[in-house]
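Supplementary Methods. Inverse-folding protocol.

Structures were first reduced to a discrete structure-token string of length 171. This string, shown here, constituted the complete conditioning input.
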């Protein structure tokens, strides 16, 4: 079968098409048959940030209060603090077979790779979304700076991409 346009599983998982076959006799005999095509998912999407219910390669987290009010001691993580109100979500547009659970890691070459970490807050939702909180050791973050983290995101089948997270403090 040849199609005039590309079939997208993300917009339609099932397509119906009619195929007509005819012989080459003097009076041709023809027959039509409806064929149902189930388009299977492939792992063609990498995880992304979910900002205002839209997937994006970049996210920005603003923390607008004095630094002493921005964090609380993270239970079970001695020396680490949770950035209050700084949770973020990650989504994969592939089917569940290829999506969550995700692995998130700050790029090892990033200047802040040892100063921040992400902790999953629960199980993946039915829409392949996971929520994370941000922990910091506070050594590189204060009221006066804004930082960019290069984050590797990987789905359960190993498809990954580097995304960017900006964390800024309102002045």
């Amino acid at each position: 079968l040849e199609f005039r346009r590309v079939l997208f599983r993300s917009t339609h998982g099932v397509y119906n098409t009619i195929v007509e076959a005819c012989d080459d006799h003097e009076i041709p005999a023809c027959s039509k048959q409806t064929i149902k095509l189930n388009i299977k998912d492939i792992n063609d999407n990498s995880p992304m940030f979910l900002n205002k219910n839209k997937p994006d390669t970049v996210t920005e987290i603003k923390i607008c209060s004095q630094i002493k009010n921005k964090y609380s001691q993270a239970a079970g993580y001695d020396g680490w603090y949770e950035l209050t109100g700084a949770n973020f979500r990650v989504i994969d547009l592939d089917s569940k077979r290829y999506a969550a659970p995700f692995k998130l890691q700050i790029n090892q070459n990033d200047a802040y790779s040892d100063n921040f970490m992400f902790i999953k807050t629960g199980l993946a939702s039915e829409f392949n979304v996971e929520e994370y909180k941000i922990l910091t050791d506070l050594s590189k973050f204060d009221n006066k700076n804004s930082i960019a983290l290069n984050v590797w995101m990987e789905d359960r089948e190993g498809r990954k991409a580097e995304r960017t997270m900006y964390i800024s403090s309102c002045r």
